[in-house]
Amino acid sequence: MYILEQSFHLIRTCLEGMMHPFCAHIIITNVLIFNLYAVFVNGKFCKNSNLTVADDFFFQGLNVPRNTDNKVGSFITGVDANLISGLNTLGVSVARVDFAPYGVNPPHLHPHSSEVLMCMEGELYVGFVLSNVLGNRFITKVLKPGDLFVFPLGMIHFQLNIGKTPAVAFASFGSQNPGFITVGNAVFGANPPIDPEVLIKAFQLDKKTVDYLQSQLWYNNHN
To answer: Is 30 assigned a ligand-binding role in the annotation?
Structure first.
C-alpha cells in the first residue's frame, strides 16, 4: 500500500509540472506508463527528486575529438536525456559536431526543437531551407570561430566544413530529445525500402538511379 501511495504521489507531482523541478511540464509523448515501482515520462523513468544525485545531471567528455573517418566526414556526439537522465522533461540538450576537412553534416531536421549552432574551430558553410509556403527559400551563411547560427524547428539544414583542417561546432536545443532525421537516410535508406515508384515520381529520377541510391549504405553520423 505504501508503494502504491508513493507512486500515485509521484504521478500527481509529475502532472503538476512546475511545482516539481525534476519532472517538469515539457512532455513530448503525453503518455505516462505506470506500474507499482515506476512512472515513465517521455519513455524515461521519472525519478523522485529526493533521490537524485549529481551523476543524474552530469556528462563527461565533450572536450574529446571524435573519429570522423567515415563516409560523410563528420560525427555528432549528442547529449540528451538518453545520456543525462536529469535532462528528461527539462527541455534542453546539447551536441558536439566534429568535422574532417571538407566533411559534411548531411541535410537533416530536428522534429522537436530549434537549434543554435556555435562554430568553435574552422569555417563552416551552413544553411537551411524554408517551408513550401515560403517558397523553399535557402538561407545560408559561412561561420567562423565564435559565430552563431539558428536553425528553426523542423527545417532541413546542414553544415559543411569548407576548410583544409578539422572543424568543431557545439549545438544547443530546446528539447531534451530534439530528434534527428537525416533526409537521405530516411528517404533512400528506409527499412523496409520505400516503393521505388514513389521515389521515381517524387524526385523525378529514373529507376536505375533510385535503385542505386536505395542500394547504398547510408551512414548514421550520430551517436
So the answer is: no
Alpha helices in 33-126 (DSSP H): none
Residue with cell 534542453: 92
The SS3 of residue 181 is strand
Amino acid 9: pLDDT: 55
Residues 6+ apart with CB under 8 A from 86: 22, 52, 56, 57
DSSP-derived secondary structure letter, 18: G
Domains of the chain with bracketed CATH: 2-52 (no CATH), 74-215 (2.60.120.10)
Q: What is the pLDDT of residues 49-100, one digit of tens each?
A: 777 889 989 999 999 999 999 999 999 999 998 898 888 888 999 999 999 9
Per-residue confidence at 21, pLDDT binned at 50, 70, 90? very low
Beta bridge partners of 117: 149, 171
Residue 110 annotated in ligand binding: yes
C-beta contacts of 3-8 below 8 A and 24+ residues apart: 3/36, 3/37, 4/36, 6/48, 7/34, 7/35, 7/36, 7/37, 7/38, 7/39
For 211, the 3-state DSSP assignment is helix
Confirm whether residue 105 is marked as ligand binding: yes
